[in-house]
Write a structure and sequence with these properties.
- By secondary structure, the protein is mainly α.
- It has a 3-stranded antiparallel sheet with strand order 1-2-3.
- The chain is built from 5 helices and 3 strands, in the order ααββααβα.
- It has helices spanning 2-6, 16-43, 75-96, 103-123, 141-162; strands at residues 49-53, 56-63, 126-131.
């Protein structure tokens, strides 16, 4: 039984260190996301565009859909989709908390989702402010965290499958 506990496995994902790392990443993403949105809202008038780097502009716009404007105007559908995705993520983490680096994409995804949920609760829409060329829809740091979190999650899962004992 001790071997089972020492390996960090179990139905409840008994890796307090992994849960703490998830929380730290989540809070870091949430904090940076909310601070960046507040800075943009306080310094850029909606509709205004400011050059940041070649090809990258800062804007102040609202998104009523999910990441990159998907499902606009579907508040109930968006809320259900986000809720189901977050529950699935937490359930997956509980079962796989012992996997190396699983805490990183979990924290990134939860932090990004919560950053956008805070906006929805506060304003009814998400503040987007990073605009790339070629018609790419504006996004924010929470969206970037979610996107990178999904890629990282797939890499962690793929790595664990290839290096399973």
């Amino acid at each position: 039984m001790r071997v089972f506990a020492d390996r960090g496995q179990g139905l409840q994902g008994r890796r307090p260190g992994a849960w703490l790392r998830v929380l730290l990443v989540l809070l870091g993403i949430l904090g940076v996301d909310q601070l960046s949105k507040s800075a943009v809202e306080g310094s850029i008038v909606p509709g205004e565009e400011r050059g940041l780097l070649p090809g990258i502009e800062l804007v102040n716009t609202r998104n009523h859909g999910v990441a990159f404007g998907f499902l606009p105007g579907s508040d109930l559908a968006v809320s259900l989709l986000i809720g189901v995705a977050l529950l699935a993520l937490v359930a997956y983490f509980v079962r796989h908390a012992q996997q190396r680096l699983m805490w990183l994409p979990t924290g990134m995804l939860l932090g990004g989702a919560l950053g956008n949920i805070v906006d929805r609760l506060r304003e009814g829409a998400v503040t987007d402010f990073i605009k790339l060329p070629l018609g790419w829809p504006p996004f924010n740091l929470a969206d970037a965290s979610i996107t990178l979190g999904i890629v990282t999650l797939f890499l962690v899962i793929d790595h664990s499958r290839h290096h399973a004992p």
